[in-house]
Design a protein that fits this description.
GO terms for molecular function: RNA binding; structural constituent of ribosome. By secondary structure, the chain is an alpha+beta fold. It folds into 3 domains: about 180 residues, Muramoyl-pentapeptide Carboxypeptidase, domain 2; about 60 residues, Helicase, Ruva Protein, domain 3 (Orthogonal Bundle), CATH 1.10.8.50; about 45 residues, 30s ribosomal protein s13, domain 2 (Irregular), CATH 4.10.910.10. It is built from 12 helices and 6 strands. The chain has a 4-stranded antiparallel β-sheet with strand order 1-2-4-3, covered by helices on one side. Strands 5-6 form a two-stranded antiparallel ribbon. Strand 3 and strand 4 form a beta hairpin. The longest helix has 27 residues.
Length: about 350
């Protein structure tokens, strides 16, 4: 009980003194506009749920650093304490709400012996009496039938933040007042500690088999081909023949940071053989990064790369533009015909000439 009151006090102090605040209505309307845009882009509520979870995961992987720096909290002793910290310090610090925490165990067995008892997994439920993301929101019948979880970004934030502190967690919504339920409730189930030997590696919430070559496994992400994966591995000083299972925690963190936001990733170092934890001596010159100067004729092909939903959205916008302008590619897209590039029409005409049968009269 004393620790619970202590965490509540820490959360209130962080919210009052160390948190930059924005207008609550602006925050709610901005998130609502984001969800509406995703619905228009994907036209599938199940896919929208996945994209919201993925966005939240990316936010959580970055938010945990700020949270730990502000709160100066140590390592939690068990999963029950994790739930208390998440509710009374995490939610209070960033959303100014304190969900009710209900601790329990589920019958599903945990991976790699992480359960607390025979065939049980530690779980905590967060009951949100108020949800800033859902203020002024009313879901249409179509969204209710499509099983849209409007605030699914919160599950991704929980999953991403806890993964950065070496905890694999499954977070899902089990009820929402926007769907006619009595309360908004999130369930978080503990899977296993990532510092224990496991058979799978997680990047942005995607499981990669440890026996696969990393250059092949990275092509799982939309927008990464074989050459791009090799360039990325060279950037992060990972051997081109490395397996997924051989990745170290710092390398996994670097890959996650790059894939979540390629545009803000740091450039490669001038000393490629130095480890990420290398600290030069006082007399040594400062570490320099390889930057591409304007007008040099060289380009960094990883600097402006777009992946996953960002790339898919750009492609869909290009297709819509071609259809609106009425180009040949746009007409083929409108008719549902395959489009392989600018030379589709030329290739078809050439094939017609080569395959033409000349009959002798």
């Amino acid at each position: 009980m004393s620790s619970t009151k202590q965490y509540k006090t820490i959360g209130e102090d962080l919210w009052k003194g160390r948190t930059e605040k924005i207008n609550a209505e602006l925050f709610t309307l901005t998130y609502g506009a984001l969800v509406v845009q995703l619905i228009q882009d994907y036209e599938d509520y199940g896919e929208v749920n996945k994209q919201l979870d993925k966005m939240g995961y990316n936010i959580g992987t970055r938010l945990i650093e700020d949270f730990l720096a502000r709160s100066s909290l140590g390592r939690c002793s068990d999963f029950r304490e994790v739930g208390e910290v998440v509710a009374k310090v995490g939610f209070k610090t960033f959303l100014n709400i304190v969900p009710t925490v209900v601790h329990s165990t589920t019958s599903a067995p945990a991976t790699n012996g992480a359960s607390t008892g025979s065939g049980t997994t530690p779980t905590f439920n967060l009951i949100l009496d108020e949800n800033p993301l859902a203020d002024f929101v009313e879901l249409p019948d179509e969204a209710l039938q499509g099983e849209l979880w409007f605030s699914n970004v919160l599950c991704g934030v929980l999953r991403g933040a806890l993964e950065m502190v070496q905890m694999q967690v499954e977070a899902t919504f089990i009820s929402d007042v926007l769907r006619g339920d009595e309360a908004t409730e999130i369930q978080a189930s503990f899977s296993y500690h990532l510092d224990r030997p496991v058979k799978m590696v997680f990047l942005l919430g995607v499981q990669l088999a440890d026996h696969k070559a990393l250059k092949i496994a990275l092509t799982t992400f939309y927008g990464i081909g074989r050459q791009t994966s090799l360039r990325l591995m060279a950037r992060l000083q990972i051997h081109e023949h490395a397996k997924v299972g051989s990745l170290t925690p710092p390398q996994i963190t670097q890959l996650t940071a790059f894939l979540s936001s390629p545009s803000t990733a740091p450039p490669p170092m001038m000393t490629p053989l130095a480890s990420p934890s290398f600290v030069p001596s006082v007399t040594a010159p400062p570490i320099k990064y390889r930057t591409v100067e304007e007008g040099s004729g060289r380009t960094d092909r990883l600097a402006k790369i777009k992946l996953e939903s960002e790339l898919l959205r750009e492609i869909q916008e290009n297709i819509a533009h071609h259809r609106a302008v009425g180009t040949y590619k746009g007409r083929r897209h409108a008719m549902g015909l395959p489009v392989r590039g600018q030379n589709t029409r030329t290739n078809a005409q050439t094939a017609r000439k080569l395959n033409k049968i000349e009959r002798r009269r």
